[in-house]
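Researcher: Last one for today. Full complex below.
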Amino acid sequence: MKIVVLVKDVPDTYGERTLNLETGLAERDKSDRVIDEIVERGLEFAISFAEQNEGTEVIALSMATEQSSATIRKALAMGADRAVLVVDEALHGADITLTAQVLAAALSHIGFDLIVAGDQSTDGVGGVIPAAIAELLDIPQLTRLASIELSPDRVSGPRTSERVTLTLTAPLPAIVSVTERFAEPRFANFKGIMAAKKKPFEVLSLSELNATIDVMSAPRSIMTNIVAKPPRQAGVKVVADGDTAQHLVEFLKKNQLV
Amino acid sequence: MSKNVLVLLDVDPGGKLAKSCAGLLGGAAKLGEPVALIVGHAEHTDALAAAAAELGATRVLLAEGDPTAFVTPVVDALVAAAGVTNPIAVLGAQSDQGKEALARFAMRTGAGVAIDAVDVSADAEGVVAHHSTYGGAYTVTSSVTFGVPVITVRQGALEARGEKQPLVVEKLLVEPSKRKSAVIEGVEISDAPKTSRPELRGAAKVISGGRGLGSAEKFGLVEQLADALGAAVGASRAAVDAGFVPQSFQVGQTGVQVAPQLYIALGISGAIQHKAGMQTSKTIVAINTDDTAPIFDIADYGVVGDVFTVVPQLIAALKDSAV
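Model: Here's the assembly. Have a good evening.
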């Protein structure tokens, strides 16, 4: 079984994240880059499945910049067998359509039985890439699953949205996405980090994907304007005393909040 | 040229239009003539269509599809609806139901996609989507280079409302695409929560608790204040990770993003991860024992003190003031 995990490198949500006000693009060097934590849960699923099922290959696939290699390598340290990174100048600032097209082309290039993704990233928060890939590759989508049951030819799992739980099932090949209800990922240990250095790490450009993706000819979503919100100013700060509650109620009343 | 704006409407588990529909149809009315699309729910379509017209739909298209196929029937219906309406834009909710179908529709028809818009507008060059990114730190506008924009709209973000329209209903003929889809083997609908508390997403007031609450039992204090104010209950990631409340309560970059009129943070230090989910709130009140907590940097009213002392007094004072 060949499992491809879609890996996204994102700015760490524990730090400050900035956008360049001239290009509108994320300032990658201004924040710590990490594998998106939801992706790590997907990796954990794939790697533990591989540990229990001989003959399973786990491939980490990402579309990013060359600098993201270090982040993607962490997937190898966790236990993925090899990594494929698509890097191309023409993909700078790619929108959802282009991203999905490139990932779909890379997936066809690699080959797969199951694609595993996170349900949505912490930076883009769109949550539509897995569905877009399913459409482009014409494979069943089982997105936002709370757990996965995987057999050699079938994948199933529950998807909960607010009060509705759907039980989804499909023959392979298929794409699944995982939610935060999946198990916490393992830490990459020293042995894993050392082993990762010897694992295959392939960097591909668009032309090497054998795909006919014309970046300019399809409609693209483009950013037309960007404004940074002025930082919020602190208001009053008081040390609690006997009258605090009373003053707070007056404050809420004055602002018509009670 | 058509002025139709195709709007995919979500239906809630009770068979009513989802809360997002009012804003979607209101937003569509700013751009042109809202045409609503409802897929499935055959047993409720009369009431759903009437509700859509009430919210501003000039036409309501009703489509049926294989109820056991996941997502693809909705995409097929969108394709058919776009075929008969020739829309200038396609809108839907940034919801579990809406966003995936819209993204797939865009892939299939080769349209540009704008995700998680908080507003829409039209200028001389066409339809513009407005976004609030990185937890409200940036306001961004986007448009598509050409073609019909497909826009998903953040739930509860659109304040525009449409005017009631006369009911015009059409059955939509949909040619199934035979795209491979997952099969829905089972559907389970859990009971509506018994709580009378408002839902976190879209609530006008939110009271959140953090690690400072200390335990799941003591987190009850947050709920008491929420009930005294008619507010929804939220939590910081630290409180969720400590097991005080389920993950669905989490406010922050990896949880729900809220922008209520009033946000009260109890025992929350204000990590960037948390601030990204609430810093666009109109008024922020913070109570924390640590006077260096970063939450105070963005609070309109900060109280340095123990939540277990201040909050019970506040609840009592609120009761007194209500009399």
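Chain B touches chain A through 94 residues (CB under 8 Å). The first strand of chain B starts at residue 4 and ends at 8.
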